């Protein structure tokens, strides 16, 4: 199956999920992640503010922030690369491109992600054997992940059933080290 068809299939499955199931899944992922020492000790966390049918991150971002982490969220640039700005509570966000909420704080630059101790990214699917993530197709997170050091935990948030074998891969596709789903966190490499 090519990337476009796989994206359509996963998005359709996500749309069929109940809101109750999504909320329960988000709570399970949040609790599982917050129990990990490498999450608890991360002083600077790069995450994203979920939208639509993505695994919900609003509670996770808030929990990380309340735990004392500095959380940076992406700000989409005109060239589709990701700038980063600090999350300072729910009132620190405003609608950005495509209606995605982003911080109003000073932009830290595309390289701000290099200093993160933990990076949490969206994905439609992750290959269970290689850790390659399938994104929406814009390449924004692949560029951001390419800037992350090799020892930094990188986590893709998924719904159950989205850790699969056979994600189509191109040379620019980046791998993640973990897949976090309601059913658990899986180390990939």
TrEMBL record:
Protein name as it appears in the record: 5-formyltetrahydrofolate cyclo-ligase
Annotated positions binding substrate: 54
Any one GO MF annotation of this record: metal ion binding
Assigned EC number: 6.3.3.2
Cofactor(s) listed in the protein's UniProt record: Mg(2+)
Keyword Ligase attributed: yes
A single GO BP: tetrahydrofolate interconversion
Recorded family membership: Belongs to the 5-formyltetrahydrofolate cyclo-ligase family.
Catalyzed chemical reaction(s): (6S)-5-formyl-5,6,7,8-tetrahydrofolate + ATP = (6R)-5,10-methenyltetrahydrofolate + ADP + phosphate
Species in which this protein is naturally found: Spongiactinospora rosea
Binding site for ATP: 3-7, 133-141
Cleavable signal peptide: none
Xref: Pfam families: 5-FTHF_cyc-lig
Gene3D superfamilies reported for this sequence: NagB/RpiA/CoA transferase-like
Alphabetic keyword roster: ATP-binding, Ligase, Magnesium, Metal-binding, Nucleotide-binding
Keyword ATP-binding attributed: yes
